[in-house]
C-alpha cells in the first residue's frame, strides 16, 4: 500500500480517537446539528463493514506468528502487509461507525440498558482495534498477546452486534420463533384480567417494539403498568372515562397518512376490535386490576373480551355406569328415541314424538335406564302434572323440555328432587305465577328457565327473577309490546279470476282476525269508508278489486289489486290462421280460452307457459260457435313490458258472420301505446261494438311493426303476448 | 339344499360380494399385522366408526342451514368497507386484484372501478359488530351471532360453488352435508326424515337449485334429503289415494314387506331393506307431517316475530317457521334455499328487496329457538356460496352498479350449537377483496359443523368404489377459535 496513504489513514485514526474521546466526555453537553443527523442515521448501514473487516483481521491476527514461521517469505510478506492494511481500515471504519452511533444515540427514543451496553461495547471495539494496530509491531508483542487481543475484540464485536439488534428489532428477536412454540397455556376466562390479559397483549403486539424502556420513542414506555400510567412526552395516555379526549385514542384514530398516527404506517396496524377494546377500557376508567368476569354481564368490554378466551375444555364426566346396550335398544321405538350422548358415553338423551302415540307409560317404561337419562324432551306431549312424579325418578336429569305440555305447575315440586337439573323449559304451558313463586326456590342447580308464551306477565317474571338470582329467565319475544309491523296484503281465494256470468268474490288473509276492506271502483281502500269484506259480494261485470288488510296492533297492509275478467261465451272450436312465435307457443289456439293467466317474466321458460306470442305475423284467431251467439265485446289480455320490447297490439279487428267465408268487420280498436319507459303491466284491451249475432268470430291483432323512436330498440318488430281472450 | 346355497351365492350382487370379500381379506391382513386396534376395538367396523352415534359429546344436535342461493354481497350486508366509498370509481390496484381468476362475465371488462356500499352501516349490540341498514332485525341479534367474514371457496360459478359447499366436491354425486349427518348420527325422530329441504324464491336475479344438492350420493338412500314443497301436499305422494283407509295401507305395507324380505333372502341387496324402511317411514310420516306442517296453531307473537308472510306458504318466512318446527321435532338437518341473490347488475334495487325478504325471519328463527331453550343445541347457519367483487360489473353510475362472483372472501353467520356468540371472526383487507386474518376454507367450515354435531370429520368415512370418502375430502381443520 502506498506509504503516503497509510500515513494519512493513521492520522485519521488518531484524529478519530481524539474526537471520540471528546464526544464521550461531553456526551451530555453537545447537540447534534440538524444537518448532521442523516450522518448519524447511516450508522446502521456502515456498522456492517467494521464487523466483517475486523472479524477477518482478528482471525488473521491470531494466526499471524504461525504464518510468519512456516510460510515462504513471499507469502509471509504479503500476509503481513495485507493484514496491516486490513486492521487499519477496520479500525478506521469502526471509528467512523462509533461517531455516527454517538450522533444517532442523541436522537429521540434511544435509551436504556441495551443502548448503554451497545455504546460501550462499540466504543470498546474501536479502542481495542486501534490498540492492536498501534502495538502489533512492538518487540514484546507475541503470539499469546495477539491471540488474546483478537479474541477480546471478537467478543466485543458479538456483544455490540447483539445489543444493536436488540435496539432495532426489540428484545428476544432471535429466539422469539422458538419461544412462541412454547407459549404458556392461555388463561381461562374466569382468571383473565382486563388489563393484563386483554389490554396489555394489544400493547405487546402492536406498540411495545418502539415504546419499551430501551427504545422509549416519545418517552413512552408501555412495558409496565406504572410506566404506562405515567404516559409519554406529550402527556398522559388517557383521561380515565373519557376516550374522546384521550391521547392514546386520538393517536390510533388519526388517518393513516398523518405523521402522528400510531402505530406508524408500515407497522402492523391495530384491528378495529383492538381499537374498540382500548376505547371501552378507557371509557370504563382504564382499570388495571379488574377481572373480566367482574364486569357486568351486559358490558361491551366483557362481551368482546369473553370471545378472546377459551373456557377450559370441560368434557363432562358422569359417575354412573352405562346402561345395558340391549335394554337401550329395546326402549327405542318409532315414537321414542333413546340414544347415548356420544360414543362410549354412559349418558342417554330421550326424545318422545307424536302426540297421538303418547301415554304416561312411555315415561314409566324408561325406569330401567333412569340413572342414565340426562336429557328428556317431552315437547308438545300431553304430559299432565301427575306425570312429573315419574320424571322425578331420573336422578341425573340435567335438561328437561316440557314446552307446550299440559302441565299447570302444580306438580313442579316433584322435580325439586332432581339435583342435577340445570335447564327447564316450560314455554307454552299454563304454568302459574303462584306455582313458580312457591317452588322455584327449591331448584338449587337450575340455571335456565324458559317461561315464554305462558300466562306470566313481564312484571311477574321480573319479580321471580328478583327472588331467584341464579336462574336466567327466558321470557321470549313479546309481540304485543313490540313495535307494530305491517300486515301482508289479502289474497284471492277464488280458484280463477275469470268468470262466466257471475262470481261470488272470495278474499282471504292468512292471519286470523284480520279485517279486509275493499273497493270495486278503482279507488284506494281505506280503513274507514271502504266496505268490509264479508263474502257476500257478487261480481257480474269485469271488475278491478282493490283490497287492504287491517288488524289492531298491526299497520294496515299495502293495497292488493285483482283483475276479475268476465268471459261468458266460450267457442266450441278455435284455430289459428298464422303461426305463433317459436318461443311462446303456450298451448296453441287453446291458450286463449283455457282460463289460465300468465304472469310476468314471460321470457323465462318456466313462466312462458301461458303466453301465446306473435312477432313476425298477425294474430288471426277464428272461433266457431255451434249455436249462434250475440256478441258486443271482445277483449284480449296482454302484457306490456316495453323494456323487453313487448307492446300491446297496434290494431285489433273483430270480424264476425254466420259462416267462415262471410264475415264482416264488427269493430276495431287501437290500444294506447306506451310513449316512454313505464313499469310492466298486464291488462285487457277491449273492443266494443254494436251487438251482433254470429256463428263465427275472427280476431285479428297486429303486433307493432316498428317500435317507436324513443325506445332503444326502435324500428324493430315488437312482441305481442296474449294469454286469454274474453268474449261477451 | 346345497344347490340353493350355491345359487344364493351366485345371486349375490357383484359389488356386495366383492366388498364382503375385501372386508374378509382386509381383516385377515390387518390381523396378521397385529394392529392393536383390531383386538381392542369393541364392535367398530374397519374404519373405527359406528354409524349412528356421535364420536364425542355433541354441542349441537340439529342444524338449520339458511342457504342464501346466488351469493349475497358481503359489502352491502356485513363487511363494512368505508375505504371503498372513498375510492369510488377508482381502478382496483393490481396488487390487490392479483391473479384472481374472473368469470366470463367480467373477464373482458376493460376497467374494474371500485364501488362502495350504497347503504350505511352501524355498530350494534354488546359485540359492536357492524351491520348494514338493510338488516335491521339481524342487527338486533348480533350478540347471538358469530359472524365469519373470512370464508373462501375454490369455485367461481354458482353450481360448482353450491355443490362444493354442500358436498365438499365441485362435481356432483357426493353425499350432501345433511346426508352425511344423517349417516353419522341416525334419526332423532323416526317419524320424519332426517334431512329435509325447503325452497323459496326472492325477487332478485335467481340461480337454480337442483336435487343433486340434497342427494345421498353413495350413501344409503335413506339419507337422501326430502323436499317439502308448498301447497296442500308438502311431501309429494305421501297422501293416501281417495278411498284408501289407514288399515288398508298398513296391510298392504305388511304384505309388501314380506315380499321384499323374500327378495332380500334371495339377493342380499341392502337397498331392498332401505326401501322397506322408507315405506315404513312414509307410513309414519302420513300422520307426523300434517302435525308439523300445521301453522294454524302458532300464536300471534310468533307470527309477529317472523312477520306476516310466515303464513304464506312458499315464502322464506314460512320456511323459517317450518324449519323451526321440523327441527323442534327432531329433524337433524333442515336445509333452506332462498334464491335471488345474484346481483350482477341493478344491485342496490334488488338487494334491498332480497334483504327485506330474509332479514326478519332469519333473526326470528334465532330468537324463537332461543326462547324455546333450543338454540344451544341447534346450529343455525346463514350464508351463500361465495362473495361478490369490490369492483363493479358493468357500468358504474351514480346510484346503480353490480358485482360479480368473488370466491376469495365472503361472509356467513352462525348462531347457537356451541358456537361462540357475539364475535366477528376473520378480516378482509380495506377493499374487501382479500382475507388478511383467519381464513376459513369451505372444508374448515364443514369440519367445524361436523365437530359441533359430535363428529370427527376425519373419521366420518364411507368406503365407495375402493376409496374412503369424507365430506371434507382430504383437508379441513376445525376452527376452534369460534367454538364456545
Automatic annotation (TrEMBL), chain A:
PROSITE patterns: CYTC (PS51007). One of its GO terms (molecular function) is electron transfer activity. Pfam families: Fn3_assoc (PF13287), PSCyt1 (PF07635). Keywords: Heme, Iron, Membrane, Metal-binding, Transmembrane, Transmembrane helix. Residues 194-286 form the Cytochrome c domain. It comes from Spirosoma arboris. This is Cytochrome C. PANTHER family: CYCLOINULO-OLIGOSACCHARIDE FRUCTANOTRANSFERASE-RELATED, F-BOX DOMAIN-CONTAINING PROTEIN. It comes from the Bacteria. The chain crosses the membrane at residues 12-36, 42-63, 83-104, 116-135, 147-165. Signal peptide: none annotated. The lineage of its organism: Bacteria, Pseudomonadati, Bacteroidota, Cytophagia, Cytophagales.
TrEMBL record, chain B:
It comes from the Bacteria. Gene3D superfamilies: Alkaline Phosphatase, subunit A. Coiled coil: none annotated. InterPro entries: Alkaline_phosphatase_core_sf (IPR017850), DUF1501 (IPR010869), TAT_signal (IPR006311). PROSITE patterns: TAT (PS51318). PANTHER family: BLL7424 PROTEIN, DUF1501 DOMAIN-CONTAINING PROTEIN. This is DUF1501 domain-containing protein. It comes from Spirosoma arboris.
Amino acid at each position: 500500500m502506498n506509504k503516503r496513504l497509510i500515513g494519512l489513514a493513521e492520522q485519521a485514526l488518531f484524529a478519530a480517537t481524539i474526537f471520540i474521546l471528546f464526544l464521550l466526555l461531553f456526551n451530555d453537553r453537545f447537540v447534534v446539528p440538524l444537518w448532521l443527523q442523516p450522518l448519524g442515521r447511516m450508522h446502521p448501514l456502515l456498522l456492517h463493514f467494521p464487523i466483517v473487516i475486523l472479524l477477518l483481521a482478528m482471525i488473521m491476527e491470531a494466526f499471524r506468528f504461525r504464518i510468519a514461521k512456516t510460510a515462504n517469505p513471499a507469502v509471509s510478506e504479503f500476509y503481513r502487509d495485507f493484514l496491516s492494511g486490513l486492521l487499519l481500515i477496520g479500525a478506521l471504519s469502526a471509528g467512523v461507525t462509533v461517531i455516527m452511533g454517538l450522533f444517532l444515540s442523541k436522537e429521540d427514543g434511544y435509551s436504556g440498558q441495551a443502548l448503554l451496553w451497545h455504546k460501550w461495547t462499540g466504543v470498546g471495539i474501536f479502542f481495542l482495534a486501534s490498540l492492536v494496530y498501534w502495538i502489533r509491531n512492538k518487540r514484546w508483542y507475541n503470539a499469546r498477546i495477539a491471540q488474546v487481543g483478537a479474541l477480546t475484540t471478537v467478543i466485543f464485536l458479538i456483544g455490540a452486534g447483539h445489543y444493536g439488534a436488540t435496539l432495532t428489532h426489540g428484545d428476544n428477536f432471535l429466539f422469539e420463533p422458538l419461544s412462541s412454540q412454547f407459549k404458556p397455556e392461555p388463561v381461562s376466562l374466569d382468571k383473565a384480567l382486563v388489563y393484563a390479559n386483554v389490554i396489555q397483549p394489544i400493547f405487546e403486539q402492536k406498540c411495545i417494539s418502539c415504546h419499551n424502556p430501551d427504545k422509549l420513542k416519545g418517552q413512552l414506555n408501555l412495558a409496565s403498568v406504572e410506566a404506562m400510567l405515567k404516559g409519554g412526552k406529550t402527556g398522559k395516555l388517557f383521561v380515565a372515562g373519557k376516550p374522546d379526549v384521550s391521547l392514546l385514542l386520538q393517536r390510533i384514530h388519526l388517518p393513516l397518512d398523518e405523521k402522528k398516527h400510531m402505530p406508524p404506517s408500515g407497522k402492523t396496524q391495530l384491528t378495529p376490535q383492538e381499537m374498540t377494546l382500548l376505547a371501552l377500557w378507557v371509557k370504563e376508567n382504564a382499570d388495571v386490576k379488574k377481572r373480566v368476569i367482574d364486569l357486568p354481564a351486559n358490558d361491551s368490554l366483557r362481551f368482546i373480551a369473553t370471545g378472546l378466551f377459551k373456557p377450559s375444555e370441560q368434557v363432562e364426566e358422569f359417575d354412573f355406569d352405562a346402561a345395558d346396550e340391549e335394554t337401550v335398544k329395546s326402549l327405542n321405538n318409532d315414537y321414542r328415541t333413546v340414544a347415548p350422548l356420544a360414543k362410549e358415553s354412559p349418558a342417554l338423551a330421550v326424545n318422545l314424538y307424536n302426540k297421538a302415540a303418547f301415554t304416561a307409560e312411555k315415561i314409566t317404561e324408561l325406569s330401567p335406564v333412569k340413572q342414565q337419562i340426562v336429557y328428556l324432551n317431552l315437547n308438545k306431549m300431553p304430559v299432565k302434572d301427575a306425570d312429573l312424579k315419574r320424571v322425578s325418578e331420573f336422578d341425573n336429569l340435567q335438561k328437561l323440555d316440557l314446552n307446550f305440555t299440559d302441565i299447570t305447575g302444580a306438580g313442579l315440586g316433584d322435580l325439586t328432587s332432581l339435583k342435577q337439573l340445570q335447564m327447564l323449559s316450560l314455554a307454552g304451558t299454563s304454568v302459574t305465577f303462584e306455582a313458580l313463586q312457591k317452588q322455584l326456590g327449591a331448584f338449587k342447580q337450575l340455571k335456565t328457565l324458559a317461561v315464554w308464551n305462558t300466562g306470566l306477565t313481564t312484571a311477574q317474571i321480573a319479580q321471580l327473577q328478583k327472588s331467584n338470582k341464579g336462574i336466567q329467565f327466558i321470557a321470549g319475544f313479546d309481540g304485543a309490546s313490540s313495535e307494530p309491523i305491517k300486515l301482508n296484503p289479502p289474497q284471492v281465494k277464488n280458484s280463477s279470476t275469470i268468470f262466466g256470468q257471475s262470481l261470488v268474490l272470495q278474499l282471504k288473509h292468512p292471519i286470523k282476525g284480520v279485517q279486509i276492506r275493499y273497493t270495486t271502483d278503482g279507488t284506494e281502500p281505506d280503513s274507514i269508508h271502504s266496505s268490509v269484506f264479508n263474502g257476500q259480494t257478487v261480481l257480474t261485470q269485469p271488475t278491478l278489486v282493490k283490497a287492504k288488510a287491517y288488524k289492531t296492533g298491526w299497520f294496515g297492509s299495502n293495497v292488493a289489486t285483482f283483475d276479475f275478467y268476465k268471459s261468458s261465451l266460450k267457442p266450441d272450436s278455435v284455430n289459428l290462421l298464422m303461426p305463433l312465435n317459436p318461443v311462446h307457443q303456450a298451448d296453441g289456439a287453446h291458450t286463449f280460452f283455457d282460463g289460465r293467466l300468465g304472469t310476468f317474466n314471460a321470457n323465462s321458460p318456466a313462466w312462458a307457459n301461458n303466453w301465446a306470442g306473435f312477432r313476425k305475423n298477425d294474430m288471426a284467431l277464428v272461433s266457431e260457435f255451434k249455436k249462434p251467439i250475440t256478441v258486443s265485446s271482445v277483449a284480449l289480455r296482454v302484457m306490456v313490458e316495453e323494456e323487453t320490447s313487448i307492446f300491446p297490439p297496434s290494431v285489433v279487428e273483430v270480424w264476425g258472420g254466420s259462416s267462415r267465408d262471410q264475415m264482416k268487420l264488427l269493430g276495431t280498436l287501437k290500444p294506447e301505446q306506451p310513449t316512454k319507459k313505464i313499469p310492466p303491466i298486464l291488462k285487457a284491451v277491449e273492443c266494443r261494438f254494436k251487438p251482433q249475432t254470429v256463428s263465427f268470430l275472427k280476431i285479428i291483432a297486429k303486433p307493432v311493426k316498428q317500435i317507436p323512436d324513443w325506445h332503444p330498440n326502435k324500428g324493430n318488430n315488437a312482441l305481442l303476448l296474449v294469454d286469454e281472450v274474453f268474449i261477451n | 339344499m346345497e344347490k340353493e346355497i350355491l345359487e344364493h351365492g351366485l345371486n349375490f350382487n357383484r359389488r356386495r360380494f366383492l366388498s364382503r370379500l375385501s372386508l374378509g381379506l382386509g381383516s385377515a391382513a390387518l390381523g396378521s399385522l397385529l394392529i392393536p386396534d383390531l383386538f381392542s376395538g369393541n364392535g367398530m367396523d374397519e374404519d373405527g366408526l359406528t354409524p349412528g352415534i356421535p364420536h364425542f359429546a355433541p354441542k349441537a344436535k340439529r342444524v338449520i342451514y339458511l342457504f342464501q342461493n346466488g351469493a349475497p354481497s358481503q359489502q352491502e350486508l356485513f363487511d363494512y368497507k368505508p375505504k371503498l366509498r372513498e375510492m369510488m370509481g377508482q381502478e382496483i390496484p393490481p396488487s390487490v386484484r392479483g391473479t384472481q381468476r374472473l368469470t366470463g362475465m367480467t373477464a373482458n371488462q376493460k376497467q374494474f372501478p371500485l364501488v362502495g356500499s350504497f347503504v350505511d352501516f352501524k355498530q350494534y349490540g354488546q359485540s359492536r359488530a357492524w351491520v348494514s341498514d338493510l338488516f335491521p332485525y339481524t342487527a338486533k341479534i348480533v350478540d347471538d351471532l358469530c359472524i365469519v367474514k373470512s370464508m373462501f371457496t375454490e369455485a367461481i360459478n354458482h353450481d360448482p360453488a353450491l355443490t362444493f359447499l354442500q358436498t365438499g366436491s365441485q362435481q356432483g354425486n357426493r353425499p350432501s352435508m345433511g346426508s352425511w349427518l344423517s349417516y353419522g348420527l341416525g334419526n332423532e325422530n323416526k317419524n320424519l326424515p332426517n334431512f329435509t329441504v325447503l325452497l323459496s324464491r326472492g325477487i332478485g336475479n335467481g340461480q337454480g337449485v337442483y336435487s343433486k344438492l340434497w342427494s345421498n350420493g353413495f350413501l344409503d338412500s335413506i339419507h337422501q334429503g326430502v323436499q317439502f314443497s308448498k301447497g296442500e301436499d308438502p311431501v309429494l305422494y305421501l297422501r293416501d289415494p281417495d278411498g284408501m283407509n289407514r288399515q288398508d295401507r298398513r296391510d298392504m305395507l305388511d304384505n309388501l314387506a314380506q315380499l321384499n324380505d323374500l327378495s332380500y333372502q334371495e339377493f342380499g341387496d341392502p337397498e331392498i331393506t332401505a326401501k322397506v324402511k322408507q315405506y315404513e317411514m312414509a307410513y309414519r310420516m302420513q300422520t307426523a307431517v300434517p302435525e308439523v306442517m300445521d301453522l294454524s296453531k302458532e300464536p300471534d307473537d310468533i307470527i309477529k316475530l317472523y312477520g306476516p308472510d310466515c303464513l304464506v306458504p312458499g315464502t322464506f318466512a314460512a320456511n323459517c317457521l317450518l324449519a323451526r318446527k321440523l327441527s323442534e321435532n327432531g329433524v337433524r338437518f333442515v336445509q333452506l334455499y332462498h334464491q335471488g341473490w345474484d346481483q350482477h347488475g341493478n344491485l342496490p334495487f334488488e338487494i334491498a328487496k332480497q334483504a327485506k325478504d330474509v332479514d326478519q325471519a332469519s333473526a326470528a328463527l334465532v330468537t324463537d329457538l332461543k326462547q324455546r331453550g333450543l338454540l344451544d343445541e341447534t346450529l343455525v347457519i346463514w350464508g351463500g356460496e361465495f362473495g361478490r367483487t369490490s369492483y363493479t360489473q358493468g357500468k358504474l353510475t351514480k346510484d346503480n352498479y353490480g358485482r360479480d362472483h368473488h370466491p376469495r372472501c365472503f361472509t356467513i353467520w352462525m348462531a347457537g350449537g356451541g358456537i361462540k356468540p357475539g364475535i366477528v371472526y376473520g378480516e378482509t383487507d380495506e377493499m374487501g377483496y382479500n382475507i388478511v386474518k383467519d381464513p376459513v376454507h369451505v372444508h374448515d367450515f364443514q369440519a367445524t359443523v361436523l365437530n359441533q354435531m359430535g363428529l370427527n370429520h376425519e373419521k366420518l368415512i364411507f368406503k365407495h368404489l375402493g376409496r374412503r370418502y369424507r365430506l371434507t375430502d382430504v383437508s379441513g381443520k376445525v376452527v376452534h377459535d369460534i367454538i364456545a
